[in-house]
Design goal:
- By secondary structure, the protein is α/β, with parallel strands linked by helices.
- It has 22 helices and 15 strands.
- A hairpin with a 2-residue loop joins strand 2 and strand 3.
- The longest helix has 26 residues.
Length: about 600
């Protein structure tokens, strides 16, 4: 019996080493490109074999000295694999699988009871909590996030007390990161999801027009690159607040049972791998049922199309950023379009973006002053050269965005000219920056077909000083593109917590009705540029276009006209005048919303 247990133990250790070697190879693979999928299949198979073996030989392995935290570490690795695969493919099933594994580790307390003074095991437990937090955050599992934050904070405090010879400063910073992130994200915790939701975003009135709409050329939205860098911006791990919002708004909201409201403690009880009977652990699931990807079948909606694949880059060097775009362009299928989203400060912006100033000059009253971020004046040569139709090559390299700290300008500066080579393929570009208008020079400079360009205002606009620091609240333009009503609330100084639920829901209805009407106008317009027409059938890109129209119109009426050019977003090519801020159908929608929320006095409806 002892000899047999020894063989089982050696086989198990060999499987662990083999799986860990394969895991190490894929862990550092780039998060972009379709060529790496076969590596992940090999690693999944290795861990599947390991997981099955430890279940089939659990009693013998326990006799040979197997610790529960070792089982937890295996499950944690599998969860990490699933999350990495989600980040590479944007397939939400992988994210759900990661959640299920991590939740099983939490409820079965695999890491609890480990050797009190084993700092190595403690670091594994800390990493587990940090990873589970990120998965829960992206899945919008608010209750679970709150539970994990409390346990994580307690664990870090306990680690500091019990392992005095070890420095846990970095883990304390991780706790501060997630707390800071939640302070912003939970301000609208009970509102509709950021993901594209059929219930909210598919509108019956405009649906027939969208379904019948067919441009001369139709492009499919397949890939996106998202990056954000601002000094001291809100982030958790390598997901900033801006990329978090954009990541979610480019995904379908599942309608499966997984997203029903229920207490944390009851989650996934029907899928428990283990149960305690007569003081012993029994396995009720064969190979656990958790590694089979079909587990997510009843948690996602099979009728929904696949999500566009997204690459999220955190503080990339410009060369790396361009290499990622080049790879995606090379792999982009025919008749497809790539989205590039960049949120970053630009050349000449002051480092302290938290300083605020009033734009003054309100024509309503002194209480109606618009508050904006204090940025230095932008170099206007780019816009001037664009307006007179003449461009010098230097126009493409006079202004830049900072993708990282400015101490290494060459490696972190992104210029308009850097983007031009990739305009050989269809491109949907969103620039959110205090220097965004410098990228107007791309219009007409494309090497293939015209690109769809959305540029943020140079300055944000708010009613009140409190709680409007872009560093701590994310970009206003990105907020409008991903959560337009919440952005409207923030702009006029309203608090969701202090708003009656029925009032908020009615505001959602007003906005939905307006968006539906604008969709019909675009689908029936004879002057819609082909650049917009060829992407209008895509629900994600159509949603961004409609929200841009809302953002532009709201800011047009909110900011005094004499200096509102800096506060307005820009799109190139231009959208039809029928959806411009001066059109009655757009004006009436903003007026109706502002009257409903009793903030109409903040707007200048007679000046546009």
């Amino acid at each position: 019996m002892a000899a047999q247990s020894d063989v089982v133990s050696k086989t198990f250790r060999a499987l662990v080493e083999s799986a860990d070697r394969k895991f190490a190879r894929v862990r550092d693979l780039p998060s972009y490109g379709r060529a790496q999928n076969h590596y992940f299949q090999k690693v999944f198979k290795a861990y599947l074999r390991l997981w099955k073996y430890q279940q089939e030989n659990r009693s013998k392995l326990v006799e040979a000295g197997l610790n529960r935290w070792e089982i937890g570490e295996i499950a944690s690795r599998i969860g990490q694999l699933y999350f990495n695969q989600y980040m590479r493919t944007s397939d939400l099933r992988f994210l759900i699988e990661a959640y299920v594994f991590y939740e099983a580790i939490l409820h079965r307390k695999y890491f609890e009871g480990a050797k009190a003074k084993d700092v190595g095991v403690r670091f594994k437990e800390l990493r587990f909590y940090a990873r589970f937090l990120l998965v829960s955050l992206i899945l919008n599992r608010t209750e679970m996030v709150q539970l994990l934050v409390e346990r994580f904070r307690t664990l870090v405090d306990d680690s500091t007390s019990n392992f005095r010879e070890t420095n846990f400063k970095e883990w304390k910073l991780v706790v501060q990161e997630i707390v800071r992130f939640l302070e912003v994200d939970t301000a609208f915790a009970n509102t509709r999801p950021l993901r594209y939701c059929v219930q909210f975003d598919s509108r019956p009135t405009s649906h027939p027009y969208v379904a019948r709409f067919h441009a001369r050329k139709v492009l499919k939205f397949k890939d996106a690159v998202l990056t954000s860098y601002h000094r001291n911006e809100v982030k958790f791990a390598e997901i900033t607040l801006d990329t978090y919002r954009m990541l979610q708004c480019l995904e379908w909201e599942p309608s499966g049972s997984f997203y029903q409201k229920h207490p944390v403690e009851s989650v996934n009880q029907t899928r428990a791998v283990e149960s305690y009977e007569n003081g012993t652990i029994t396995d009720n699931s064969g190979a656990s049922g958790l590694i089979d990807i079909n587990l997510a079948a009843d948690l996602t909606d099979p009728t929904l199309p696949p999500n566009p694949r997204k690459v999220v880059l955190y503080r990339p060097y410009t060369t790396h950023f361009l290499a990622v775009i080049a790879t995606i362009c090379e792999e982009l299928p025919p008749e497809s379009i790539m989205l590039i989203y960049i949120s970053a400060s630009g050349k000449g912006a002051q480092s302290n973006v938290s300083q605020m100033e009033s734009s003054g000059g309100s024509r309503k009253s002194s209480k109606n002053k618009v508050v904006s971020g204090r940025f230095s004046e932008q170099n206007s040569s780019a816009s001037e050269s664009h307006s007179n139709g003449k461009r010098e090559s230097s126009d493409y390299y006079d202004n830049c965005l900072w993708l990282g700290p400015r101490g290494t300008a060459g490696s972190n500066a992104l210029y308009p000219g850097d983007i031009i080579p990739f305009t050989r393929r269809p491109l949907f570009l969103i620039i959110d920056s205090d220097n965004s208008h410098a990228f107007k020079v791309l219009h007409g400079a494309e090497r293939g077909e015209p690109s769809a360009l959305l540029f943020s205002p140079l300055k944000p606009a708010f009613k009140n000083l409190a709680g409007v620091d872009a560093t701590h609240n994310g970009s206003q333009f990105t907020f409008f593109l991903t959560a337009p009503l919440q952005a409207f609330y923030q702009m006029v100084g309203l608090s969701f917590i202090d708003t009656d639920t029925d009032v908020y829901n009615d505001a959602e209805e007003i906005l939905s009705s307006a968006f539906s009407e604008w969709e019909v106008i675009l689908c029936t317009s004879n002057s819609l540029d082909l650049v917009w027409a060829q992407v209008l059938s895509d629900p994600f890109l159509r949603c961004l276009i409609i929200r841009f129209i809302f953002c532009r119109s709201v800011l047009s009426y909110f900011c005094p006209q004499r200096d509102n050019e800096q506060y307005l977003p820009v799109c190139l090519p231009h959208l039809p005048s029928s959806v411009s801020p001066s059109s009655e159908v757009v004006r009436s929608a903003v007026l109706r919303l502002s009257n409903h929320l009793k903030v109409a006095d903040y707007f200048h409806f007679d000046d546009v």
